Amino acid sequence: MSTPFYVSPQQAMADRAEYARKGIARGRSLVVLQFTDGIVFVGENPSRALHKFSEIYDRIAFAAAGKYNEYENLRIGGVRYADLRGYTYDREDVTARGLANVYAQTLGTIFSSAGEKPYEVELVVAEVGESPEGDQIYRLPHDGSIVDEHGSVAVGGNAEQISSFLGQRHREGMTLSEAIKLAVQALSRDSNGGERQLTADQLEVAVLDRTRPQKRKFRRVVGSRLARLLEDSERSGSEESTPTDAVEDVELDGDTGTDTEQ
């Protein structure tokens, strides 16, 4: 009888973590930034059907990098959790912290299970507050840990270099056009230090806008409105854009099917 091959638990977990990190790194990066009126999500995504950003509940949004079918399953589970909790208790009881805890338990269980491979995903769960001080941003790596982020966060692809770039340049009180400009600059940088040109057609942009009168604060920024915001950001060196102008440029375009609460 042959002797079973032995792998220490430490080595097995290290191998699983390396497998997940490589899978996530193959995906395109995305960034999440706070600005004066809320939180903006910007990612390189030429697809108009497969979204990286989605609405979970009234003030909560979800962003993910990595394997689409895996993070789509997590998104659907998050929508169901939020709907059930809001219906059973109260809409105010649905929070980004509670949702992040649910995702952490799911990812942690899958990561530590020897019977299945770890998920190749990295998530961001964000909730917009009544003021910038009330905003919440949580990053969840593949192993189910929770990182409480402030100001800006990047996941997927070249996230480490992008995070460093954002950390040096992001500031409080940015307008929407300034935040988008900074996000595009960060995403345009490659690992060799060069820069690429990203157009509106190559970007997916969404916001959690605290100034919206509706309960649902999530909206997508698409088409001509996104193009105008990018043009405004290019002119921002000579002309200052007010927060009101930025909001007017991104009037609701209508939520897509991926944002419908099931």
Largest sheet: 5 strands, antiparallel
Quaternary form: single chain
Strand content: 15-25%
The chain-level structural class is alpha+beta
Query: Count of helical segments?
Result: 7
In helices, the fraction of residues equals 25-40%
The strand line-up of the biggest sheet is 8-1-2-9-10
Evaluate the radius of gyration.
Answer: 19 Å
DSSP E strands, number: 10
Query: Are there runs of 5+ residues with pLDDT below 50, and where?
Result: 240-262
- Helix-strand pattern: HEEEEHHEEEEHHEEHH
Top keywords for this entry?
21% strand; 37% helix; 10 strands; five-stranded antiparallel β-sheet; 262 residues; alpha+beta
Give a brief description.
With 262 residues, the protein is an alpha+beta fold.
Explain how this protein is built:
- The chain has 262 residues and is of the alpha+beta class.
- The chain is built from seven helices and ten strands.
- A five-stranded antiparallel beta sheet has the order 8-1-2-9-10.
Any chance you could write out the topology, listing elements then pairs?
Elements: H1 9-25, E1 30-35, E2 38-44, E3 53-57, E4 60-66, H2 68-88, H3 96-112, E5 121-127, E6 136-140, E7 147-149, E8 152-155, H4 159-169, H5 176-188, E9 203-209, E10 218-221, H6 223-235, H7 243-248
Antiparallel strand pairs: 1-2, 1-8, 2-9, 3-4, 4-5, 5-6, 6-7, 9-10
